[in-house]
Structures are given as structure tokens and as C-alpha cells.
Specification:
Helix content is 46%, strand content 12%. By secondary structure, the chain is an alpha/beta fold. It folds into two domains: 78-311, Type I PLP-dependent aspartate aminotransferase-like (Major domain) (Aspartate Aminotransferase, domain 2, 3-Layer(aba) Sandwich), CATH 3.40.640; 314-474, Alpha-Beta Complex (Aspartate Aminotransferase, domain 1). The strands form four sheets. A seven-stranded mixed beta sheet has the order 4-10-9-8-7-5-6, sandwiched between helices. The longest helix has 23 residues, at 314-336. The protein is globular. The protein binds D-serine (DSN). The site of D-serine (DSN) has 4 residues, from loops. D-serine binds at residues 63, 126, 154, 203.
Length: 475
């Protein structure tokens, strides 16, 4: 190849199947404008392939979403190039007068949207945000409580392999036999262990979080109560889920799930929190920087600002309501098809299929078989899972991303039917209980997946559905 000539593009977008190109609006517009196409064909090809994967598949992972074109524009802006360690008006680098205006504006938008007096918009993501809250409010070794990871909690809520349980004393609570938070256990443990902090929230909880019960329990021992609303912050912003703000002292949230912003996080302090601890905002600010992080990612903060403005509109409230409605429709249709759901249904954006009636450890089979037809979910443990986290017995499914694309109840029934057809096809497939045999069983299953024409037909059906609903960032 001559010096300076870019290598040929491996699979240009214009060679996509005719069915795609004939479906208006034609996707991949973002790529058409990219100079990377001329300068870095390898990265361009990966961008193109990922855009095609998202466009032609159904994202049903409840923690994922599709951001708007405007969020993506702010994310890839010149703010990416600027250092701004510190906070507005108190920076360690020159040239931050505009960054100050940006961060202050985004803080104000966050405060207004969630009805709180303080917001820190600098955390890089959810885990650092949660870690920062523990660092700010606890002394090393202090006891704290959180929902067990295997019952729907998050790693940073005290999972045994996470740093949070190595630096502090983690006391996990659980869900009950109905898949609801076991408040009796929470109350008994709180009285016995006197935690300094209690987390409420999770990553695989299909039911509304009882914030006021948590508040009553935490107040009996004077514990900080912190809501991790990462999964539901968009539903709260849109009025489709109760807000924790009047019940808790602080709130953490990622910004890229139902809130539909860039990957990042926020920490909020409530009136109740500042009344309990007037130093709360300063403690959090100091823990983020210099305690834990360096320069904030201003491009992410700019994109978050865009997302917060979008989330304050009536259209977003309609979106949030439709996410929940779609999740309920999908849940009902799956139950009608014979599936079992943890807690029997959903109050929010996600559902957790309990696949144990067909045998333990089958989450991985569904995860991979659905991926084969372009439906992206994730294998997940169910409460009291008889199998292991790598071969769990559940499947986590959510509606935020497909709802962003404009899908409705009818589409949810189609999606349930795709999942049910796969379920029927997998009826007699199991995962061996013996850990040593599982790896080879999975390898054999993958070979079948690759060659079984049953999946080709369903893949085409999924793609047809997808092409009617372009992802917004690419449209
Ligand atoms: N990884 C996130 C989720 O999928 O829920 C939690 O951190």
C-alpha cells in the first residue's frame, strides 16, 4: 500500500444487506460525517460494526440505553481536552472560566431535576461514587448494610470480593421468598449491628424500593441512609417511580441508565442529609477530589447537562412512563408463555426471569442463545440461586433502550414471543451440575448455536423489527 493511503475499509456501511438500506431513515449517519474514516480505518470499522450491532439488535440489558445525538455531540466535544481539577471558582489549572460555568450549570440542573440542595457531578462512574460516599461518611472498619449482590445488590454495597467489604464491615441483607426486600431482616440486623450507613437500591430489583420503611429503620439507630438510584434515576426524574429524596440523606446515581445520559455518576445530598450533617456537601466534595479522583471529565459533564435538560421535559416523563408500561407488558407476556419471574412481575424497568423450573444454571444458555438472534440480555443470579454466578439460573431483562427507540406494547409482545420461541427450543438443554463438566457442555452448546438454522430465522425477524426503530444517536 502506498505511503499515506488509508487501508481499504473492511465492510463499508454501504454494503449492508439491501433490506437495511431500503428502510428509512437509513442508519449510520453519525459515521458518514466522521473523519476517522479517512485516518483510522481500523477504529472506524469498529465504530461502524458497533453501530450496526446496536441498530440491528435489541438492547434488553436494563442498565443500558441509547443516548440522543446531542448527548453524543457534547461527549465528543473540545471539553474532552481540558483539565479542571477542583470545583467552580477553585481550580488548579488556568483557562477554566468556561468550565466553571459549565459545571455550575450542570449542578443546578441536577439539583432542580431531583429537588436537592447539593449535587456533585464529577464522579467518573457509579462504583467510584459509592466508594466516595463510604469514604466520606465512615471510618475504617465501621459497619454498613447493603443488599446482597446475589439478591440484586451492587458490588459496592458490600460484596465480599469488593474493596468496600475489605475496608468496612459489610452486613448484607436479602430479599424474601417473594423477591421483595426483607424489611423484617433489615430491621432486626439494624438493631443488632447498629450500622453507620445503610444502602437502599440495587441492580436486579424488579420492585419499588420502600424508601420510607428504610428511613424509619435507619433513623432508629441514627444511620446515614443512602439511596443508590442508578437503575431508576430516569424513572424518578420522569415521575414514574417514587423519589427517595425526602427519606434519605444522600443519593448516588449513574447517569447512563434510565437517565439516558453519558456514562458517569452524581452524588446528591438532601435537605434531610444536610440537617443531619451540615458538613455533608463539603465531605463529599473533598472525598471526590482530592480524596479519590483527579480532573473531572468535562465532556461527560457537558453531556450530562444535555441529558438532564432532556430529562426535565414532558417528553421524558412520557418516556419514563412507557418504560414501566413496556416492562409490565413484557412481564405479563412472558408469564403467559410459561416463564417464572422473581417477585412475579415488575414495578420498574426490569424483570428477572427465574429459569430454575427448567433446571439450574440455565441463564447462560438463554443469554447466549438470545445473543445469537440479536437480543442482548444478561445472565444473572436469582435469589438463593442453586448454581454459581458464572452459570446463574436467571436472566435480567429491561426496557429502557427499546423504549427509547419508540417501541410499544405490541413490540413487547413480539419480543416476548422471540424469547418464548428460544425457551421452547432450549427446553431439553441443561447445564451439568458438576462444575468440571460445565465448560465443555457450554462449548458444545456454542457449536450448536452457530450451526442451528432455527436461530437464523429468528435473527432475521429480530432484525426486521429493529430496522423499524432506528437508534436515536445514529438517526
Ligand atoms: N453494571 C451495572 C448494571 O448492569 O446494573 C451495575 O453497576
Amino acid at each position: 500500500m502506498a505511503h499515506g493511503q488509508p487501508p481499504p475499509l473492511p465492510t463499508p456501511y454501504f454494503q449492508l444487506p439491501a433490506s437495511i438500506l431500503s428502510t428509512p431513515p437509513i442508519p449510520f449517519c453519525t459515521l458518514l460525517r466522521m473523519s476517522i474514516k479517512q485516518t483510522d480505518a481500523e477504529i472506524f470499522e469498529l465504530l461502524r460494526a458497533e453501530e450496526q450491532r446496536q441498530q440491528e439488535g435489541l438492547t434488553l440489558i436494563p442498565s443500558e440505553n441509547h443516548t440522543s445525538r446531542e448527548v453524543l455531540e457534547a461527549l465528543s466535544s473540545v471539553f474532552s481536552d481540558k483539565y479542571a481539577e477542583g470545583y467552580p471558582g477553585r481550580r488548579y489549572y488556568a483557562g477554566n472560566d468556561i468550565a466553571d460555568r459549565l459545571e455550575s450549570l450542570v449542578q443546578e440542573r441536577a439539583k432542580a431535576l431531583f429537588g436537592v440542595p447539593y449535587a456533585n457531578v464529577q464522579p467518573y462512574s457509579g462504583s467510584p461514587a459509592n466508594f466516595a460516599v463510604l469514604l466520606a461518611l465512615l471510618e475504617p472498619g465501621d459497619p454498613f448494610m447493603g443488599l446482597d449482590l446475589l439478591h440484586g445488590g451492587h458490588l459496592t454495597h458490600g460484596w465480599k470480593a469488593n474493596a468496600t467489604s475489605r475496608l468496612w464491615k459489610s452486613i448484607p441483607y436479602h430479599v424474601d421468598a417473594n423477591g421483595r426486600i426483607d424489611l423484617a431482616e433489615v430491621e432486626a440486623m439494624t438493631l443488632a449491628e447498629k450500622p453507620k450507613l445503610i444502602w437502599c437500591g440495587g441492580t436486579a430489583l424488579p420492585r419499588a424500593i420502600p424508601f420510607s420503611d428504610f428511613s424509619r429503620i435507619a433513623d432508629t439507630v441514627g444511620a446515614y441512609l443512602v439511596a443508590d438510584i442508578s437503575h431508576i434515576s430516569g424513572l424518578i426524574a420522569g415521575g414514574a417511580h417514587e423519589s427517595p429524596v425526602s427519606h434519605v440523606h444522600a443519593v448516588t446515581t449513574t447517569t447512563h441508565k434510565t437517565l439516558r445520559g453519558p456514562r458517569g455518576a452524581m452524588i446528591l445530598a438532601t435537605e434531610k442529609g444536610i440537617k443531619k450533617d451540615p458538613e455533608l456537601p463539603q465531605k463529599i466534595d473533598k472525598t471526590i477530589i482530592p480524596g479519590l479522583q483527579g480532573g473531572p471529565h468535562l465532556n461527560t459533564i457537558a453531556a450530562l447537562g444535555v441529558a438532564l435538560k432532556e430529562a426535565s421535559t414532558p417528553a421524558f416523563a412520557e418516556y419514563a412512563a412507557r418504560v414501566v408500561e413496556n416492562a409490565r407488558t413484557l412481564a405479563d407476556a412472558l408469564v403467559e408463555s410459561g416463564f417464572t419471574l422473581v417477585s412475579g412481575g415488575t414495578d420498574n424497568h426490569l424483570l428477572l426471569l427465574d429459569l430454575t423450573p427448567g433446571g439450574s444454571g440455565r441463564g447462560v444458555l438463554f443469554h447466549e442463545a438470545l445473543e445469537r438472534i440479536g437480543i442482548y440480555t444478561n445472565k444473572n443470579t436469582v435469589p438463593n440461586d442453586p448454581s454459581s454466578p458464572f452459570y446463574p439460573s436467571g436472566l435480567r431483562i429491561g426496557t429502557p433502550a427499546v423504549t427509547t427507540r419508540g417501541m410499544s406494547a405490541t413490540d413487547m409482545k413480539h419480543i416476548a414471543s422471540f424469547i418464548a420461541q428460544v425457551g421452547e427450543h432450549l427446553k431439553n438443554v441443561s447445564i451439568p451440575p458438576d462444575a468440571a463438566e460445565r465448560k465443555s457442555a457450554l462449548a458444545a452448546f456454542r457449536e450448536t448455536l452457530a450451526t442451528d438454522p432455527f436461530y437464523d430465522t429468528l435473527r432475521a425477524d429480530v432484525r426486521s423489527l429493529c430496522l423499524r426503530y432506528p437508534i436515536p444517536g445514529a438517526a
